[in-house]
């Protein structure tokens, strides 16, 4: 009861935020607004693991849309923790609910760090929490799909709180969980450990070793080695896909080191990359950069920002995306430390800081895919889109349930079949060579095409290709000429094809 009284404001705000995030996720899913196929592949790998369906070499977390275990691409064993929740309700919505709850817990931890660890007033701590629940980077994750990076904020915050409170059990559990999320999270842990080690060595005249920092560095090293070994095994002894993905993504075919450096510098200074930097720091009014103590904790976030800025050359220039979530714990820790500094009269300046943060958040929302507030609930929610998803619902209901019944659908629709069918995704924009796509690569019992542009996406075949490709439109034409399939249902451009 004492805990509830002490943190009631934080609990209420975090709970309301979690409920809003759950509503946003469910509405986007039910209205066919999930942005990618991540929700589909994550749901399928959880489902397959429960049912004992593994890859050819016996690795779990297998999904047939990529044609291999997810461990070959990213080291994310923390996904096993979702299995008990999925058993309660076997639906992609379960993953969206878990994601919202994880982020809500992370908000409580940030409030605790400000109020309990750094002894900031409840007023300032509440302001920090409000800034977190309104942060564009957080909402970029929540209105995207499900992603394993939802674990980042609560797990990494456990490490940070344990470190400052000298609670080594909390520190150790948080560190273990954080190292199981994804390899880029592991790298930020290692970077922070190295920074803390160097600071302790140079600041302390006796050159005492920072043992927690050593543990962070060693843990990160072991996790990276494990990532490569597991990926190598899951890739059947070939070049680990986790490395292959990096090579493919950042390969620019420059023959000289100078040419490569110039390429990356040029693209790190374009408007999209500058937008990335603004999105990361402007909502915090750049406070983490004003003093050495806070700047130290921003360094891992610089690594995440650097990856985001470099990736803009490959067409991924939406200013912010779900990958920025990795930077959030470090940014907010630095922000809280900056607020704590004595040279800032926070009580007098809080009003102007809040106004500045509010304006910055609005600007970031305006220049990103989070432009309108209805993006949080149901984007394009008008009579045309209502009719579009009603048409889809009618046709989706025509597909028989059963894991022995296979179906192909585009990336927005496919997640709606994952729990009840053997679902395959239509070929996407990523151009990966290891993926097992649906029709025409895989002959499935059913193929669902949606040529209604309110729902169907036009996308390029690769991230660097500027030519748009509407898979549904082209596939409908192919299926009409394919003697193996017959049209069994059609509602205003939404067609269902069945294998004869």
Describe what you observe in this structure.
- The chain is of the alpha/beta class and 500 residues long.
- The protein has 2 domains: 2-33 and 73-376, no CATH class; 383-499, no CATH class.
- Helices cover 55% and strands 8% of the residues.
- The chain contains 19 helices and 9 strands.
- The chain has helices at residues 2-6, 8-30, 38-50, 83-88, 92-117, 122-133, 136-142, 152-165, 168-178, 183-203, 211-234, 241-250, 257-268, 271-281, 292-310, 328-340, 346-366, 383-396, 471-481, and strands at 62-63, 68-69, 402-409, 421-425, 446-450, 459-460, 468-469, 485-491, 494-499.
- It has a 5-stranded mixed beta sheet, sandwiched between helices. A two-stranded antiparallel sheet has the order 1-2. A two-stranded antiparallel sheet has the order 6-7.
- A hairpin with a 2-residue loop joins strand 8 and strand 9 (494-499).
- Helix 10 (183-203) runs antiparallel to helix 11 (211-234), helix 14 (271-281) runs antiparallel to helix 15 (292-310) and helix 15 runs antiparallel to helix 16 (328-340).
């Amino acid at each position: 009861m004492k805990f509830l009284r002490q943190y009631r404001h934080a609990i209420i705000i975090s709970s309301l935020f979690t409920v809003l995030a759950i509503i946003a996720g469910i509405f986007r899913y039910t209205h066919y607004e999930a942005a990618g196929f991540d929700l589909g592949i994550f749901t399928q790998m959880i489902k397959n693991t429960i049912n004992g369906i593994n890859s050819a070499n016996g690795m779990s977390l297998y999904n047939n849309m990529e044609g291999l275990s997810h461990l070959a691409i990213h080291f994310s064993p923390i996904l096993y923790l979702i299995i008990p929740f999925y058993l309660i309700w076997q639906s992609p919505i379960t993953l969206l609910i878990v994601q919202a709850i994880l982020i809500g817990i992370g908000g409580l931890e940030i409030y605790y760090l400000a109020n309990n660890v750094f002894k900031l007033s409840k007023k300032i701590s509440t302001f920090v929490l409000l800034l977190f629940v309104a942060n564009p980077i957080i909402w970029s994750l929540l209105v995207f799909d499900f992603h394993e990076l939802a674990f980042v904020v609560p797990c990494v915050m456990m490490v940070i709180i344990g470190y400052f409170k000298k609670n080594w059990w909390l520190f150790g559990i948080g560190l273990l969980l954080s190292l199981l999320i994804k390899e880029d999270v592991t790298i930020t842990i290692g970077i922070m450990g190295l920074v803390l080690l160097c600071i302790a060595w140079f600041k302390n005249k006796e050159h005492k070793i920072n043992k927690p920092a050593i543990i962070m560095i060693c843990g990160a090293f072991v996790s990276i080695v494990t990532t490569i070994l597991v990926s190598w095994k899951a890739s059947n002894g070939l070049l680990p896909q986790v490395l292959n993905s990096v090579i493919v993504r950042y390969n620019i075919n420059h023959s000289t080191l100078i040419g490569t450096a110039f390429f990356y510098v040029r693209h790190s200074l374009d408007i999209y990359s500058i937008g990335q930097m603004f999105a990361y720091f402007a909502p915090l009014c750049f406070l983490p950069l004003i003093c050495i103590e806070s700047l130290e904790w921003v360094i891992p976030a610089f690594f995440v920002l650097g990856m985001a800025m470099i990736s803009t050359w490959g067409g991924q220039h939406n200013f912010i995306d779900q990958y920025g979530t990795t930077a959030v714990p470090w940014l907010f820790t630095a922000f809280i430390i900056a607020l704590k500094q004595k040279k800032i009269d926070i009580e007098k300046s809080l009003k102007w800081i809040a106004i500045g943060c509010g304006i910055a958040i609005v600007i970031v929302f305006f220049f990103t895919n989070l432009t309108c507030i209805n993006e949080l609930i149901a984007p394009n929610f008008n009579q045309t889109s209502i009719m579009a998803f009603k048409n889809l619902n009618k046709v989706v209901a025509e597909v028989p349930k059963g894991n022995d019944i296979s179906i192909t659908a585009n990336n927005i629709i496919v997640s709606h079949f994952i729990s009840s069918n053997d679902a395959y995704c239509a070929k996407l924009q990523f151009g990966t060579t290891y993926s097992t796509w649906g029709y025409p690569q895989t002959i499935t019992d059913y193929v669902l095409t949606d040529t209604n542009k309110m729902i169907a996406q036009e996308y390029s075949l690769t991230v660097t290709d500027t030519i748009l490709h509407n898979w549904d439109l082209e596939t409908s034409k192919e299926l009409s000429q394919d003697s193996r399939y017959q049209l069994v249902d059609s509602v205003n451009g939404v067609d269902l094809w069945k294998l004869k």
